[in-house]
Amino acid sequence: MALTHAASGEIVSVRPLGSALRASESVTLVRAPHFEVFRFVLPAGKTTPMHEAAGLITIQCLEGEVALDAHGRRQTLVAGDLVYLDDAEPHAVSALTDASLLVTILLHRV
């Protein structure tokens, strides 16, 4: 079954998942040629490897707590925090508790 993404003008909930967080999976909410938004679910203790996004990126913590490694330092994001990273800025995310993040990328795909 093909995944459906939000259409222009469609309302999408990004409310905290609460008790459903642990059983939830990451999902792409919006996908367009140069724009992508996804909810990234990261269970406590899990870490992404250091990587680079293919464009400008924002990471907003919707719930939980994560450590963000970028710009040569580690910062903690909690619910309500948002961070912006330049194009191709190396970064990694580690879940300190079960967490969900709203990630937005302004892509430079050709």
TrEMBL record:
<keyword id="KW-0223">Dioxygenase</keyword>
<dbReference type="GO" id="GO:0051213">
    <property type="term" value="F:dioxygenase activity"/>
</dbReference>
<feature type="domain" description="Cupin type-2">
    <location>
        <begin position="39"/>
        <end position="102"/>
    </location>
</feature>
<dbReference type="Pfam" id="PF07883">
    <property type="entry name" value="Cupin_2"/>
</dbReference>
<dbReference type="InterPro" id="IPR011051">
    <property type="entry name" value="RmlC_Cupin_sf"/>
</dbReference>
<protein>
    <submittedName>
        <fullName>Quercetin dioxygenase-like cupin family protein</fullName>
    </submittedName>
</protein>
<dbReference type="InterPro" id="IPR013096">
    <property type="entry name" value="Cupin_2"/>
</dbReference>
<dbReference type="InterPro" id="IPR014710">
    <property type="entry name" value="RmlC-like_jellyroll"/>
</dbReference>
<keyword id="KW-0560">Oxidoreductase</keyword>
